Amino acid sequence: MMKSILExxxxxxxxxxxxxxxxxxxxxxxxxxxxxxxxxxQLEGAYANQAQAQDDFIYGVYTDYETDASxxxxxxxxxxxDLDLAxxxxxxxxxxxxxxxxxxxxxxxxRVFETRRGPMPQVVIEAWQEIWAYYETAAEQRAYTGDFERxxxxxxxxxxxxxxxxxxxxx
Length: 171
What we know:
Elements: E1 3-9, E2 12-21, H1 23-27, H2 33-47, E3 57-63, E4 73-80, H3 85-92, E5 101-105, E6 108-114, E7 118-119, H4 122-137, E8 147-152, E9 160-161, E10 163-168
Antiparallel strand pairs: 1-6, 2-4, 2-5, 3-4, 3-8, 6-10, 7-9, 8-10
């Protein structure tokens, strides 16, 4: 089992892109999240000159849960930014910034899991399988208010990384 700790996390305001999906859809050939990552990196590259990221992290967010892990949710990929998205969009005109959306990950108590260093996206898929198994028997309950994966852009080496996954829990 992966290491995990409890951590209080303040709200995160992110700019990025999102899509509505389900775990059932993602398990099949028509999953939307891989294409979302590709689209994000294309937009992020074009957007990079318009606003300064506040940190070196990319966030993969799961929010707006319909019910729980079996229902629909919004997958969102983004960064924290210094500039308000409206200002950045105005500055960028009709450029990539116009395609960016905003979301807020709520302040919460999180169970934070850390993956082993390994190939992407395999380590993340393995981690989610362990997380789902953990919550089948855990005394604590998921809040389903907003969970996220935090990727350190400086930690990617030869297609491998360590990823921290934050699961909002009921306190």
